[in-house]
Amino acid sequence: MMLTRLCRTWYLLLFISLVLLFVSSMTYANESDTQNPTTNDQRELNSSVIVPPAWWATDAEQAEPQQEAPNNADTPSPPLEPPPLVQVSIMLDWFLSPKHAGLIVAQQRGLFTAQGIEVELQTPADPSVALKLLAADEVDFALSRQPLLHLYAHDGAPLVRIATLVETPLTAVVVAGELEDPIKDKLARMRYGYSSREGLDVFIPYLVPKALTQSGNLAPPVNLHFDARRAFVEEQVDAVVDAPFHTLPDQLASEGINTQVIRHSALDIPRYDGLVLLANRDSAARQAKTWSHIVRALEDAHFWMLENPDAAWELLISVEPVLDNPINEANWQDLLRRIALSPGAVDHRRYLAFEQFLLQQGLSEESLPVSRLAIDPHAL
User: Fold this and answer.
1) Within this chain, do residues 193 and 175 fall inside the same structural domain, yes or no?
2) Which residues pair with 277 in a beta bridge?
3) Is pTM, for the whole model, over 0.70?
4) Is residue 32 part of a domain?
5) Are residues 124 and 223 in the same domain?
6) Which three-class secondary structure state does DSSP give residue 357?
7) Are residues 141 and 192 in the same domain?
């Protein structure tokens, strides 16, 4: 009987424990629902998870305002424009002729432009003013001949040769008729004409003894103003001391006048550069780079002319149609043989020899150093 009561009591306590446990579970479930209300969102494995920026951004980034990403890519910067071309002027020694072909080819084929230079070729109203303008820094460059450079240098003009276009003389003594040996003795008593300063100051005094000049029995030289043909036709002269031997004999032949060409070297006059490009040496410090570029363009032009002589001739006459005549065409190949393949190179022996010649003839009081007369721009 006692055991029965104990069992009832134990079942009652167990029932009460279960009831309390159930009530406690319900209460906890209600509290969880209140704190985390259920939603209709269904979470899946591929759902996106948004992480608050504050969890990963630095303090500095949190302080900066958020910027929207650009919708379009930025426009690329425009390409850099090439530097402007250096403008230079070259004054010719006279009208354009085949001997200026290197300059024309370099200009027309863009060789100057490739070196960053734009060249303006100018023709002087008077050939005697080109070097005067260069000495006064009125033009950047001028064409001339080596003997004339020596004379101006001895006068104190700040001129210097920076390139050679034609390596041999382009003038000679042209005499009407034929002379028999000894030629030099016959030349002493002729009526001379000249067109250049070196013709008057260097070549005629060398050929005509001072005693004959002072005797008064010899006609004074005639300034032909670069019109030697007319002087021969009108019989003003017997010889021209600085005549262009490529063209004048053929021109006179068409007039029925036979001539003889006597090269200066055959008269023991030192060889000299027939066509040189001169600059004002006072501007060497600021223009050395430009000088070098010009000489490089001339070298490229000369090589192209030698490799393409026919194309070079066609280009020349297309630019200057007045040059298209049988005389120039017949002499084109001979002129090409005379152009300098290394325009910048200086023949020191040649410049020194001409200085010694002037000194021996009493035409100068001292011999100038070669460096005063000619330089290689590539060596500056």
Assistant:
1) yes
2) 143, 163
3) yes
4) no
5) no
6) helix
7) no
Q: Is 372 found in the same domain as 276?
A: yes
Q: Work out the number of other CB atoms within 10 angstroms of the CB of residue 249.
A: 18
Tokens of 35: 């704190």
| CA angle in degrees (0–180, nearest 5) for 118-284-157 | 105
Decide which of 27 and 234 is more confident: 234
CA distances from 134 to 97, 107, 118, 128, 313 (A): 21, 21, 18, 11, 30
Q: What are the residues facing 86 on neighbouring strands?
A: 117
- Token readout for 215 is 């005797």
Cβ distance 164 to 115 under 8 Å? no
Query: How far apart are the C-alpha atoms of 36 and 186, rounded to whole Å?
Result: 133
Do 175 and 163 lie in one domain? The reply is no
155-212 residue pLDDT tens:
999 999 999 999 999 999 999 999 888 888 889 999 999 999 999 999 999 999 887 8
Within a domain: residue 282? Answer: yes
Residues 6+ apart with CB under 8 A from 109: 301, 304, 315
> What range does the domain containing 308 cover?
86-167+272-379
Section 281-296 average pLDDT: 95
Considering the domain architecture, whether residues 279 and 153 belong to the same structural domain is answered as yes
